[in-house]
Amino acid sequence: MTKQLYDYWFVQFDFPNEEGKPYKSSGGEMVWNEKFKREIPKGWKASMLAEEIELQYGFPFSTELFTEQVTSVPVVRIRDILDNSVSAYTTEEVSERYLLQKQDLLIGMDGNFHINYWTDNVSYLNQRSVRLRAKNSSNVSIVQAKYDIQPYIKAKEERAKGSTVGHLSDKDMKDLYVLVCPNKKLREKFDSILSMIVKSRNEITFLTKQRDELLPLLMNGQITIE
């Protein structure tokens, strides 16, 4: 749903105008934008990613202090991004600036540049990953930012194949641009959908855990279904 809305609003530019009609298809004025090398709706602009979205790189945790025992500091590594999991904990003290929040966008910066939304408020980000967080002052949602920058990140990942290991740099991130729409309602719509995505993922995780705990008990007869 988010991808369809993004394409409709930010690629075709047929978001609802003031009359509720598709903007571009109804004759909405378009102007050339040099940064994106295409026409965009009048009143829109191109802005550097870092001006609209808060960037924070991960903390250089010591691998010697990693443990499988659950502690108060779950560590999110590149390998964990795609499936919203945590595979390591640490006893190391770390600043709250590295603490993740629900709806943050995480990007791995080595090898495969995994991109995914995060779903809890208790984990900390490891080095060589970056988290993107929507600024309250911006009209750019984290969903829109993902779709704006994903093609460029994936293109860099493809170009890196065949070499040793691909890397994203701070300069790569700060060279990215996003579209800025003057209508805050577009961001509010995306934020609402992202909230539902995160809620659904957390429910799936909870139900999967319940299934994995109950199924062996059902199979060996320790519990039955009346």
Give the spatial strand order of the biggest sheet. Answer: 4-11-8-9
Low-confidence stretches: none
Radius of gyration: 21 Å
CATH homologous superfamily caption: DNA methylase specificity domains
Strand content of the residues, in percent? 15-25%
Distance between the termini: 39 Å
Order of helices and strands: HEEEHEEEEEEEEHHEH
Mean pLDDT: 95
Please supply descriptive tags for the structure shown above.
alpha+beta, globular, Adenine-n6-DNA-methyltransferase TaqI, Chain A, domain 2, 33% helix, single chain, 5 helices, 226 residues, four-stranded antiparallel β-sheet, four-stranded mixed β-sheet, 19% strand
Describe this structure in words.
This protein is of the alpha+beta class and 226 residues long. The chain has a single domain (44-206), classed as Adenine-n6-DNA-methyltransferase TaqI, Chain A, domain 2. It is 33% helix and 19% strand. It contains 5 helices and 12 strands. It has helices spanning 2-11, 49-52, 142-160, 170-174, 184-219, and strands spanning 30-33, 38-41, 45-48, 53-57, 66-67, 74-76, 88-90, 105-108, 115-117, 124-125, 129-134, 177-180. The radius of gyration is 21 Å and the shape is globular.
